[in-house]
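Need a sequence for this fold. Nothing fancy.
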């Protein structure tokens, strides 16, 4: 008998209800892809076998969350679900005052409008699309202060979400602390590939901002995933639970915006949280204009109930180990097959380096877009491009040529099994085997805004 050398973990749940998937054949996929203009965003979900387009709003809710939906108190004002949500956020995250919103960007809109004045500078650990746009719409300018390692796909530094304090200090010296309303800190930095910030770095940032009278606003969309990496990788943190770490992270910040469609395991919802009464008072007033009354903020009572329950489930050690563990499982499988991916493996997905995968396709023939199309053709797995198409054009009309040309495999929470991960990795390996035969694309339709959603392509001869 072979000796047992390891003990595996397994999903900390069992399946009570299933959603049947449509299996697709090669001819059908070829037709669907052509009709979608070789853009995975334009595929109909019915033509997709395994959908890795995003982890946003795609989580499977638990039986307890579904039961909570039936406890929706749909009163216009003062729904009991709001008070449950408020109490949950106070106890799990530690923030004092909360405003529910329809999703993360609703919270970003309100907070940016209150805190940012025209000409202000908002330093942050890498931009996020909607976050930066709301900062700009409020009259501010975003400045990236993430460490250089975050921009290097090969670099295996364990905390690529860290802030470079010397970059922040330079901004403070140049503009003065008065023009910096807050530092915008994301946990599990999305655009860097789900890379965490360390507790040590956050503590140092807290000390620095305290001295200079600057707030820290926390984009806490994936805070539990960040806490897991701290527990696994940061010296002296192994004995703490995810729950303790999440609360500690939040304690070094002054307020937060949250897209509950990610970590918090719901299909829709978000909130803004703040410890400062004056900011809260203004937000409570402003939410009425943009979202709805301050005790529902654009959500049904049942949505708030599902969110309150989802928040508690999201900080469970077994849950987060399986969630991130599944992503790591897929990533390690790809590495075994020799697939070039961004390292270290992040919390919410795998990013395949298309430039290295298809070195014969120049970036102006949409390397990552062509690879995403090819993977769909092979197996019906839907991924998305994060490269030259997503980067768009400069104001002078020239294309941005981003350093990173990636295909993103985002894993929904609690939705797919380990066998699905095997199918995905094997499909990518198969495509890798015949990579020399893959051709680039040409863009035949380009919309003016956020072109990656709607652009159309044709294969080059
Ligand atoms: C998704 C996301 C947001 C925006 O939230 P929505 O719920 O999509 O409006 C903000 N920040 C980060 C890091 C995100 O991933």
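Here you go.
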């Amino acid at each position: 008998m072979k000796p047992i050398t390891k003990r595996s973990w397994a999903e900390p749940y069992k399946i009570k209800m299933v959603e049947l998937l449509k299996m697709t054949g090669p001819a059908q996929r070829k037709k669907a892809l052509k009709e979608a203009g070789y853009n995975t965003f334009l595929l109909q979900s019915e033509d997709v076998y395994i959908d890795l387009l995003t982890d946003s709003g795609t989580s499977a809710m638990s039986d307890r969350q579904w039961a909570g939906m039936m406890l929706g108190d749909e009163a216009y004002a003062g729904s009991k679900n709001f008070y449950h949500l408020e109490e949950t956020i106070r106890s799990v995250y530690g923030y004092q005052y909360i405003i529910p919103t329809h999703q993360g960007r609703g919270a970003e809109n309100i907070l940016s409008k209150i805190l940012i004045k025209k000409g202000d500078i908002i330093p942050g650990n890498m931009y996020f699309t909607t976050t930066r746009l709301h900062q700009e719409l409020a009259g501010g300018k975003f400045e990236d202060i993430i460490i250089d390692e975050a921009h290097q796909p090969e670099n295996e530094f364990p905390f690529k979400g860290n802030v470079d304090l010397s970059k922040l200090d330079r901004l403070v010296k140049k503009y003065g602390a008065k023009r910096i309303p807050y530092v915008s800190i994301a946990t599990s930095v999305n655009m860097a590939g789900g890379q965490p910030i360390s507790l040590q770095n956050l503590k140092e940032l807290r000390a620095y901002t305290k001295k200079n009278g600057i707030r820290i606003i926390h984009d806490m969309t994936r805070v539990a995933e960040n806490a897991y990496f701290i527990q696994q990788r940061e010296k002296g943190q192994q004995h703490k639970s995810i729950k303790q770490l999440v609360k500690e992270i939040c304690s070094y910040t002054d307020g937060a915006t949250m897209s509950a469609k990610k970590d918090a395991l719901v299909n829709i919802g978000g909130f803004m949280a703040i410890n400062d009464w004056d900011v809260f008072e203004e937000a409570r007033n402003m939410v009425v204009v943009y979202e709805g009354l301050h005790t529902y903020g654009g959500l049904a009572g049942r949505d708030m109930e599902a969110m309150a329950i989802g928040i508690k489930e999201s900080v469970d050690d077994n849950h987060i180990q399986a969630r991130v563990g599944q992503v790591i499982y897929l990533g390690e499988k790809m590495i075994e097959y020799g697939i070039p991916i961004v390292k270290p493996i992040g919390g919410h997905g795998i990013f395949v380096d298309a430039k290295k995968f298809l070195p014969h396709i120049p970036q102006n023939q949409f390397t990552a877009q062509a690879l995403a199309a090819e993977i769909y053709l092979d197996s019906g797995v839907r991924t998305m491009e994060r490269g030259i198409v997503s980067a768009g054009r400069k104001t002078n009309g020239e294309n941005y040529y981003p350093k990173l040309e990636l295909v993103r495999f985002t894993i929904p929470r609690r939705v797919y099994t380990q066998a699905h991960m095997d199918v995905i990795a094997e499909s990518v390996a198969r495509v890798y085997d015949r990579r020399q035969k893959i051709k680039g694309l040409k863009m035949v339709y380009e919309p003016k805004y956020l072109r990656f959603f709607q652009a159309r392509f044709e294969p080059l001869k």
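For context: The two ends are 55 Å apart (CA to CA).
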